[in-house]
Design brief:
Layout: E1 3-6, E2 11-14, E3 31-33, E4 55-62, E5 72-77, E6 83-88, E7 91-97, E8 103-106, E9 118-125, E10 151-156, E11 159-169, E12 176-186, E13 192-202, E14 207-217, E15 223-231, E16 245-253, E17 256-264, E18 269-272, E19 275-278, E20 281-283, E21 285-289, H1 303-316, E22 321-324, H2 331-340, E23 343-347, H3 357-374, E24 380-384, H4 394-407, E25 412-417, E26 428-432, H5 446-450, E27 458-462, H6 476-494, E28 501-504, E29 510-511, E30 522-523, H7 538-542, E31 553-555, E32 572-576, E33 580-585, E34 588-589, E35 609-611, H8 618-621, E36 631-637, E37 640-647, E38 655-660, E39 664-665, E40 672-680, E41 693-699, E42 702-704, E43 709-711, E44 716-723, E45 728-736, E46 740-748
Parallel strand pairs: 21-22, 21-28, 22-23, 23-24, 24-25, 25-26, 26-27, 39-46
Antiparallel strand pairs: 1-10, 2-3, 2-4, 4-9, 5-8, 5-10, 6-7, 6-9, 11-12, 12-15, 13-14, 13-16, 16-17, 18-19, 19-20, 29-30, 31-32, 32-35, 33-34, 33-36, 36-37, 38-40, 40-44, 41-43, 41-45, 42-44, 45-46
Helix pairs in contact: 1-2, 3-4
C-alpha cells in the first residue's frame, strides 16, 4: 500500500550557491528552513527585482526506514521556481524546467539503505532564463524564487496507480454514469491476474457506488478505462451547493496493492453562443483574475493562506469565477474553489512572449502537467491553452489545443488575446477588452473583436487594470471613477447575451517589473490591495448578492467637504443591495426614499444608489462654507432597516482595530494567518490619510513575515504570522504611538 510522507520541515538552505555544493554533505553555512520557502524576502515596494534572481541550494537529509528497501520511491515537488536540478548523494537524478507545475523524481534506484542518511540536494535557478516560460520577454508580474510549494515522499509497491481521470456523464439525467481512466506505472514489469475496485461515496459518508473489474496486468498495458452506470440520487456540483464526492480506486495483484483517492463533482459546464451554462441554466460570469503573490514572501504561502484567497473571492467579493492569471496555481487554492463553488479558468504559464522551438516544447509540457494534475477539479470549466496576450501562432496553438483535447475532451478551451481578428482555434474566444477609458463604450461587440460573420462562445477575460490604476489611498474622485468603470463593464456584459461574462483585472495588487506599474514595483490594478484589504471598487462586486445573504451598504466617500476638486460629496455613489436608502445629514433627516439606479444599470442584479442634486439639496450637503455635519445612511429591505453607515463630521483617531483571520494554527507544518490592523474614527471608519507608525512584537513559537515596523496605508495594513514547527502560544503585540497597543494571541497546536 502506498505511503505519502510530507517532507516540508527541516530543510537546509544556502542562498550563495557555488559549483560543487551538490556533491557535499556538509551543512555548514546553511540555514535551517521549512517549506514553502522563498529564496529571499523582498520589501513591499521600491526594490531591485533582480534581488531574487539567483541560484540557491536546498538540502534535506533523507532517512528512509529499511522496511521500504524494495519499494518504488518518488520525490514529488509541487512547485520550484524556475529550473530545478535534483541530486541524491551527489548524483544527478533529474531536472525540471518551469516554476508553476508539479514534477516527480524517482530515487529508490539511487538511494543507499546501507547508509544512515542520504543527502538530497536541489539546486534552484531562479533567474529569468529566456528558454523557460514565461521568460524571454517583458513580464508584468514577478516570479520570485525557491522551493515555494510543498514536497512529499511517495513510497509504492512495484505496481502503482500514477493518476486517474474521472469523466462524469449524463449528469442532468436521473441516472448518471462515470468513466474512470486509470494510469498505471509498472515499475518492475509485473504480470498476472489482477483487479480494480472503484468506490464512489459522499465525502466521508455513504457509498454511492462500488464495482470491481478483473484485468490482466502486463508491462505493455499502462492505461485502463472503466464505466460505472446507473448512479442514482447524485447531487450536482453548483455555485450554491458545491457537492463533492470521493472516488477511491484500488488495484490488487497477488501481494501488490495500491490505492488512489481523489474528489470529484457532477456538473455540466458549457460555453455557447448565447452565454455560459452550468447544469443547463444560463449563468452570467462575474469574475476576477488572481495573481498568487503576497507582500514580502512572494509565492511562498502555505495551505491556509492559499485557501483564504478563495474564501475572499467567493465570500467577500461574491464573484463566481477566478482566472489563474497567468499560470497554474496552488492545489490548495483549487481544492478550496471546489469546496466553495467558485468556477476556475486555468491557463498555461506565460505573458505575451513566445520563444523558440525549445521554449515551446517546455510550454507544451507545462500544459500537460497542469491538465494532468487538475483534470478532476469540478471548479475548473475551461483550459487556457494560449500564452496570455501573445501574437497568433497557428501551428503552436493548434498543437496546444490538440494536447488539451487529447488529455481532457470534457472541457472547452480558450486562448486569451488582446488583438482583434485573431484566428479562433479554440472553443471559446477569450479576449482582454481594454476599450473603456471612461468615455468610450464599456465593451466591444464580439463580432467587432472576432472579425467573424457569426457569433461564437465569447468571454471577456480582462478589463480596466492598467487603464486606470488606483491605490487604496488615492483621492476620492479617482476611486469613484475607478469603481464606476467596473460597474459600467459589468452592466454592459449583463445586457449582452453573446458575452458569457467578464473577468476583471484584477483581484489584488501585485509586485511587478520596472517596465510596468507605478515605479515602485507595484501594479495597483486590484480591487483589493496586496494585503487583501478592499478598495471602493471591490464593493461593486460585493454588492451583487442577495441582502438575505449579506446586506451591503458601501458609500464611495471619505465624508469630507473639501476632498473632491469640486467640493462636497455629490454625486455620492453607494454600492448596495438594499431596496432603498434614507439619509440623515446632521439633525436633518431627509424623508425621501432614495432608490437604486435600475434604469441606468439594468445589466447588474443590484445597481448602486447615486445621490445627486435631484435627490438631495446641494445647498444643504454640498455648498462650500456651510457647517459640515455627521451623516447616517440607512438601508432598507422589504421596508425594514437592515444596515446602517455612519460618518463623522470631525473624524479623529479613536480605535486601533486588530483582527486575525485565524486564532489556531498547525504547528506540525508551516502555517500562517493574516492580522489586519486598522486606525478608525469615532464611527468605525478608516482614516484614509493618517501616517501612523505601527510597531510589531512577537513572542512565542512564530515568526513575522516582513518588517517589524510599518506605516498604515489608507488607514489599514496587514501582517502575516507563520509557525516554526513548535507548539505553544504566539503573542503578537501591535503598538500605535497615538492609540496604544493591542495584543493578538494565536495557538500553535
Amino acid at each position: 500500500m502506498r505511503k505519502i510522507i510530507e517532507i516540508n520541515n527541516g530543510w537546509y538552505y544556502k542562498s550563495d550557491y557555488q559549483s560543487g555544493l551538490e556533491l557535499q554533505d556538509d551543512l555548514e553555512g546553511f540555514e535551517k528552513i521549512n517549506l514553502p520557502h522563498t529564496n529571499i524576502e523582498v520589501p513591499y515596494n521600491y526594490f531591485d527585482e533582480e534581488m531574487f534572481q539567483f541560484t540557491s541550494c536546498y538540502k534535506y537529509p533523507l532517512n528512509i526506514p529499511k522496511e521500504f528497501k524494495n519499494k518504488i520511491i518518488y520525490l514529488h515537488f509541487e512547485g520550484v521556481m524556475a529550473y530545478a536540478r535534483v541530486y541524491l548523494n551527489g548524483h544527478l537524478l533529474g531536472e525540471h524546467k518551469g516554476g508553476y507545475t508539479p514534477f516527480r523524481i524517482r530515487i529508490d534506484q539511487a538511494y543507499s539503505f546501507e547508509t544512515e542518511t542520504n543527502m538530497l540536494t536541489v539546486i534552484v535557478d531562479s533567474t529569468e532564463l529566456e528558454g523557460i516560460p514565461p521568460f524571454g520577454g517583458q513580464i508584468d508580474y514577478l516570479t520570485y524564487g525557491g522551493i515555494y510549494r510543498e514536497v512529499s515522499l511517495g513510497i509504492y509497491d512495484d505496481l502503482l496507480i500514477k493518476n486517474i481521470k474521472v469523466e462524469t456523464e449524463d449528469v442532468l439525467k436521473a441516472e448518471k454514469s462515470v468513466r474512470v481512466k486509470v494510469f498505471l506505472e509498472n515499475g518492475r514489469h509485473v504480470k498476472g491476474n489482477g483487479s480494480f475496485q472503484i468506490v464512489i461515496k459522499e465525502t466521508g459518508e455513504r457509498v454511492v457506488h462500488i464495482k470491481s473489474f478483473d484485468v490482466q496486468i502486463d508491462p505493455e498495458h499502462d492505461a485502463w478505462e472503466f464505466t460505472l452506470d446507473g448512479l442514482k440520487d447524485i447531487k450536482l456540483w453548483s455555485l450554491d451547493q458545491p457537492n463533492l464526492y470521493e472516488i477511491l480506486v484500488e488495484l490488487t495483484l497477488d501481494d501488490h496493492t495500491d490505492q488512489y483517492c481523489d474528489r470529484i463533482g457532477f456538473r455540466k459546464a458549457e460555453f455557447k453562443e448565447d452565454g455560459f451554462y452550468l447544469n443547463g441554466e444560463r449563468l452570467k460570469i462575474i469574475g476576477l483574475n488572481r495573481h498568487q503573490s503576497y507582500p514580502y514572501v512572494g509565492y511562498a504561502m502555505p495551505k491556509r493562506v492559499q485557501e483564504k484567497d478563495a474564501d475572499i473571492l467567493k465570500n467577500e467579493l461574491h464573484v463566481n469565477m477566478v482566472r489563474t492569471s497567468h499560470y497554474s496555481q496552488s492545489k490548495h487554492f483549487l481544492n478550496r474553489c471546489d469546496q466553495l463553488g467558485l468556477l476556475v479558468f486555468e491557463e498555461l504559464p506565460g505573458w505575451q512572449h513566445l520563444g523558440d522551438a525549445g521554449w515551446k516544447e517546455i510550454a507544451k509540457e507545462n500544459l500537460r502537467e497542469m491538465i494532468e494534475r487538475d483534470w478532476n477539479h469540478p471548479s475548473i470549466v475551461i483550459w487556457g491553452v494560449r500564452v496570455n496576450e501573445s501574437r497568433d501562432d497557428d501551428e503552436f496553438y493548434a498543437e496546444t489545443n490538440r494536447i488539451a483535447k487529447q488529455l481532457d475532451p470534457t472541457r472547452q478551451t480558450g486562448g486569451v488575446r488582446y488583438i482583434t481578428g485573431s484566428n479562433l482555434l479554440e472553443d471559446v474566444y477569450t479576449f482582454n477588452d481594454f476599450i473603456h477609458n471612461g468615455e468610450e463604450k464599456p465593451l466591444r461587440d464580439q463580432q467587432e473583436v472576432t472579425g467573424l460573420s457569426h457569433k461564437v462562445p465569447y468571454l471577456v477575460t480582462e478589463f480596466n487594470g492598467h487603464m486606470y490604476p488606483t491605490k487604496r489611498f488615492d483621492q476620492e474622485e479617482r476611486q469613484m471613477e475607478h469603481s464606476l468603470r467596473y460597474l459600467r463593464i459589468l452592466n454592459a456584459a449583463g445586457l449582452d447575451d453573446s458575452i458569457s461574462g467578464t473577468i476583471g483585472w484584477c483581484a489584488f495588487d501585485y509586485n511587478t517589473h520596472k517596465d510596468f506599474g507605478s515605479g515602485d514595483r507595484i501594479c495597483y490594478h486590484g480591487v483589493m490591495d496586496m494585503f487583501r484589504i478592499p478598495k471602493f471598487a471591490s464593493y461593486v462586486y460585493k454588492s451583487q448578492i442577495s441582502p438575505e445573504i449579506e446586506p451591503v451598504l458601501e458609500p464611495v466617500t471619505f465624508w469630507a467637504r473639501g476632498e473632491r476638486s469640486i467640493g462636497g460629496v455629490i454625486p455620492l455613489v453607494i454600492y448596495t443591495n438594499c431596496d432603498y436608502l434614507q439619509l440623515q445629514f446632521g439633525k436633518e433627516k431627509l424623508e425621501e426614499k432614495i432608490y437604486p439606479e435600475k434604469d441606468e444599470y439594468k445589466g447588474v442584479p443590484y445597481p448602486p444608489v447615486i445621490i445627486d442634486c435631484s435627490a438631495i439639496n446641494p445647498e444643504v450637503v454640498g455648498a462650500w462654507g456651510l457647517t459640515w455635519e455627521d451623516a447616517v445612511i440607512t438601508g432598507y429591505y422589504r421596508d425594514q432597516a437592515i444596515i446602517e453607515k455612519r460618518f463623522c463630521k470631525n473624524p479623529l483617531p479613536t480605535e486601533l482595530f486588530v483582527t486575525a483571520d485565524d486564532l489556531t494554527l498547525d504547528s506540525s507544518q508551516k502555517d500562517a494567518t493574516r492580522i489586519i490592523i486598522k486606525v478608525l474614527d469615532q464611527c468605525g471608519n478608516l482614516l484614509p490619510f493618517i501616517d501612523e507608525i505601527i510597531k510589531l512584537e512577537l513572542n512565542g513559537p512564530g515568526r513575522l513575515q516582513g518588517p517589524k515596523e510599518v506605516v498604515v496605508k489608507g488607514g489599514a495594513i496587514a501582517v502575516w504570522v507563520e509557525t516554526i514547527n513548535e507548539a505553544g502560544r504566539i503573542d503578537v503585540i501591535i503598538c500605535s504611538q497615538s492609540l496604544g497597543e493591542k495584543r493578538v494571541s494565536i495557538e500553535a497546536k
